[in-house]
Amino acid sequence: MTSRSGGVSLPPFDAMNLGDHVGDEPAHVASNRLLLERGIAARPVFLKQVHGTQVVLLDESTSDGLQADAAVSNTAGLACMVMVADCLPVLLAHRVARVVGAGHAGWRGLAGGVLESLHAGFCAADADAAATTNLTLAWLGPCIGPRHFEVGAEVRDVFLQEDAGASAFFTAVAQGKFLADLPALARRRLHSLGIDEVYGNDGSDAWCTVSQASRFFSHRRDAGPRGNGFGTTGRMGACVWLT
Fold first, then answer.
1. Which residues contact residue 134 at a Cβ distance below 8 angstroms, ignoring those fewer than 6 apart?
2. CB 78 within 8 A of CB 107
3. pLDDT digits (tens, 9 = 90+) for 105-138
4. pLDDT, tens digit, 9 for 90 and up, residues 193-218
5. pTM of this prediction exceeds 0.85
6. How far are the Cα atoms of 71, 138, 213, 240, 241 from residue 74, in angstroms, in the given order?
7. Distance between CA 145 and CA 105 in Å, rounded?
8. Residues 6+ apart with CB under 8 A from 170
9. Helix, strand or coil for residue 147?
10. Cβ 82 vs Cβ 49: under 8 Å
């Protein structure tokens, strides 16, 4: 998982912005992406994310820019990569199977089934992964935390229509307004898939993109009415790969 530090971009993209669609200088983005590739000794494949549920299986011919919000790889040296600036990155690996995956889970994708699509693609890529879901590992990266993620009743209703138990992860704060716990909602979805070894983001402020301004980009913080004055922000990346 990258953070804001270590790159060459200037404010408000300082410094390790990986997004080529946010208004940063293309040369700076290219330099940052090269720094990442050298740092992990693998080729990260950048997707065109649309808050959907499409998953792609990467191979050596896969180029950047495919429209999808999740990726799976069983090819060594190819990194599944998702970019975030408040949405939740979810990485999958397996204790035995040679397969990894990454998903971009904002509330739309999460409610729409991006984790289910990611897991289906993960299992399709390796028979061992399909046969032993209990050996799958998941890691949740930083995202907007439950003290800051305010949503309307319509967002809550989308989750509750499918899973009434999801109501436990919404806290009413005003008429028709709720605080949503995105990592907890993701953990519930992963558990329903049989994935119980889930690490990383526990919903605390240390993982909150809004709270940790020096560490993380946050679209809601930086591009909001009380943001940095530029009306934009960079993108971080979460990636996982086979050696």
1. 194, 196
2. no
3. 999 999 999 999 999 999 999 999 999 999 999 9
4. 999 999 999 999 999 999 999 999 99
5. yes
6. 10, 16, 35, 11, 8
7. 13
8. 151, 156, 159, 178, 179, 180, 181
9. coil
10. yes
